[in-house]
Amino acid sequence: MALSANLTQPVRAHDSTDAAPGWTFAIHGGAGTMDRGRMTAQQQAEYKAALQAALDAGSAVLRNGGSALEAVRAAILLMEDDPKFNAGRGAVFTWEGANELDAAIMDGRDRSAGAVTGVTSVRHPILLADAVRMDGRHVFLSGAGAEEFASDKGLETMPPEWFATDARRDALERLKAEKLSAMDVDHKFGTVGAVALDSEGHLAAGTSTGGLTGKRWGRIGDAPMIGAGTYADDRVCAVSATGAGEYFIRAGVAHEICARMRIGREGPQVAADAVMAEVKELGGDGGVILVTPAGEAVFSFNTTGMYRGRATSGGVNEVAIFTE
Ligand code: ASP
Q1: Per UniProt, where does substrate bind (predicted)?
Q2: Ligand 1 near 227 CB (within 6 A)
């Protein structure tokens, strides 16, 4: 078993000689400009505790023989309720001052996928995305139609105040007053994602976000786009991304990483780093997490930090914020 000393090296769930099948789990809570100097020790501790809670929730599912999909849902549910992250409660504001939520989930077994965009009242967009996936007639629902589908499925809704936080409102006001870009005020993207390999050998990926501060005109980012911010295929990998969505869409990041691994036979770290380098070349910042059927858990980001964590049946259990 390989226990990594830091979070820049891949880890494996298990040796091929292990008798018991292994599981691997990884999460992110967004990438971005993260300086040790700009975060107090208290803030760092709070983020690490939130990441650990989400990591533990997914790991517990996998340890108890649950599925990769269940683990992804369990971790994202917690982060959607946590106002520190840009997903569900605590999502960023649109130009008009609303919280419009995007989410996607994908099952590596059959590549069934569900995604939603522009949702304003559903407490857990990741559960709505999964309801779309299970329903199976469509993959991607938007706005009022997605809300109607949520109500048909009996999903929990919340009033606008639930999602709105002062910190995110201040960011919108600053963006408008100082004519800043979303990149200037968001710094840490704060989108959440999870990827898992379960002990049956199946993969899943999920991502949930409020998008970018000040987004307009019904803008949709990469997170809910299958193949851009979210992808899972049992044959190769499960990926969740965070960052400047426009560039991740143009590079088709999540699918491109899986394709490089499947067709190009690249290793997960090589493939992820190569695609993140392409994103950088196009002008975009951000990062990805991925797991493979062999139990590797990999991070790649071109920012100074990414809220992240990973755990394996082999005993790895770590969370981190900065480039280590
Ligand atoms: N990728 C997301 C988007 O562009 C933003 C983020 O990662 O926080 O909508």
Answers
A1: 219-222, 242-245
A2: no
